[in-house]
What does this fold into?
Amino acid sequence: MDIEHLIERGRRGDEAALGSLYGAYHRRMTAICQRIVGDRRVAEELAHDAFLLAFTKMEQLRNPRRFESWLTSITTNVALRYMERHHEPQMLSLAALTEEDLAQDTTPADEKPLPTMAELMAAVDALPNGYGQVFRQR
It folds into this structure.
């Protein structure tokens, strides 16, 4: 069935049309929610909530051909709002850290200190003959 026709019928309150839209997009919207929240049960509830919100605001959809991207935006926002409200960042007490925890290097790879000139030249010297000439001063 034509999506534009379903949306027009849905705007008039046709439950069969709304059910068809729900059936056509429910799996995709649930998958979006699950990627964000990580819990299948919660994702299904959030997707359902997103559909209810979309169906009540269907008059705001200007271009029926953009229904899927519009619904995806609503679904993503519902899931992100859920995460903001229900998943506070975990706080770790410094008193709970052991000496071993403190000794571990947890600096992300992109924040590690740059190698020294001596380390770079040693790496250049380890290259096969001729390859290192590009890096050496003349």
